[in-house]
Amino acid sequence: MTTPDHIDPFDRRRITRISKLLSSLLRHNAVKAKLNIRSDGYLAVSELFSLGSFRDVTMEQIEYVVRDNDKQRFHLMFEDDQWWIRANQGHSIEVKDIALDRIIDPPPVVIHGTKLACWDLIKTTGLKTMGRQHIHFSAGLPGDKDVKSGVRWTSEIFIYIDASKAMADGIEFYRSYNGVILTQGKDNILAPIYFERVVDKQGLLLK
């Protein structure tokens, strides 16, 4: 599919729209859309182009989204004479064979960012997968060197996790292709006993 000459194919709004479409399909709606997503999360790009929502999207735009996304949400590969794309994490659909590296040594920093309004519930019930396969964490704060994803810039509080204690209790942590730290906790919950400290954006200690 080509884009008319008078339209910038890499306009920020257009690229953001494509990124959101990819996230929706690859993380949540591929099965509902009757797409043949593999157990490792990869989907043939040719299948995307069969959808009406991608009728004006080009391969160059998809490559741009994958390459320039600041959170490195997606990965492209060329296999069996065609392009495949996957979301690196954040799935609510089952992708049991997605490549994740199990963390053996507890990371020194494991942070979950969220809204202040969520804290009253989280401090009593813990962090939950919320319909996804994992709870997401970063190895630092937004803006820290090498932190590409795992915590939103809009986060108002930051929950530091005692990974050593959690792993000693048998909780497994993994690292995705783009550096996000992931866990299912126990029964899809990471209990408050593993919260080391909680601070707001100004560094004020909440716990």
Automatic annotation (TrEMBL):
<protein>
    <recommendedName>
        <fullName>2'-phosphotransferase</fullName>
        <ecNumber>2.7.1.160</ecNumber>
    </recommendedName>
</protein>
<comment type="similarity">
    <text>Belongs to the KptA/TPT1 family.</text>
</comment>
<dbReference type="InterPro" id="IPR042080">
    <property type="entry name" value="RNA_2'-PTrans_N"/>
</dbReference>
<dbReference type="GO" id="GO:0006388">
    <property type="term" value="P:tRNA splicing, via endonucleolytic cleavage and ligation"/>
</dbReference>
<keyword id="KW-0520">NAD</keyword>
<keyword id="KW-0808">Transferase</keyword>
<dbReference type="InterPro" id="IPR002745">
    <property type="entry name" value="Ptrans_KptA/Tpt1"/>
</dbReference>
<dbReference type="InterPro" id="IPR042081">
    <property type="entry name" value="RNA_2'-PTrans_C"/>
</dbReference>
<dbReference type="GO" id="GO:0000215">
    <property type="term" value="F:tRNA 2'-phosphotransferase activity"/>
</dbReference>
<comment type="function">
    <text>Catalyzes the last step of tRNA splicing, the transfer of the splice junction 2'-phosphate from ligated tRNA to NAD to produce ADP-ribose 1''-2'' cyclic phosphate.</text>
</comment>
<dbReference type="Pfam" id="PF01885">
    <property type="entry name" value="PTS_2-RNA"/>
</dbReference>
